[in-house]
Amino acid sequence: MSKVALCFSFNTNKTSLAAKKIAEAFGQTQVELVNAESITPEEFLSYKKYILGVPTWFDGELPNYWDEFIPALEDLDLKGRKFALFGNGDQKGYPENFVDGMGLMAAILEKCGATLTGYTSTNGYEFERSKACRGDQFVGLALDFENQGKQINQKIKDWVDQLKKEF
Ligand SMILES: Cc1cc2nc3c(=O)[nH]c(=O)nc-3n(C[C@H](O)[C@H](O)[C@H](O)COP(=O)(O)O)c2cc1C
Predict the structure, then answer these.
(1) Is ligand 1 within 6 A of the CB of residue 89?
(2) pTM of the complete model
């Protein structure tokens, strides 16, 4: 299997922690850590499989580092490339925008022709609205460190097992 780009901001706390756990579960040699804060289109296109860390900020928005890469990303042809998203959010603090960032990123990637994998069930979460929902699934793995901290390790383990089959 070619290396998976595990792309997230190295400047974050919780997203970085989740990425570290994902890398461990995947096997360090299977993934390459890529800093979303300094990614270029050329580097991005050098991979075929991607796991993107996409937390939600600003009441339902992407963090600045992703917003800055989006114009370049929108110009890329991502046909034949597989993506899985994980996104931190806070379902109690932001029940009307829970993990919206994953939904925003999923829509952009799909417009570029990408294939999305790694959907997960919304069972066990409590929120009102999320742009990351498709029916009763999230378009990736929703991680809520604030309210479900004890479930993070198991959720990541299950998700990585799922990705190993889907990638
Ligand atoms: C100012 C602010 C705005 C936030 N907005 C949202 C939001 O709209 N939806 C959501 O699910 N979580 C929201 N969150 C929660 C963060 O996504 C959560 O704390 C996440 O773990 C941050 O990850 P990071 O520190 O790795 O970027 C917000 C947090 C802050 C501090």
Answers:
(1) yes
(2) 0.97
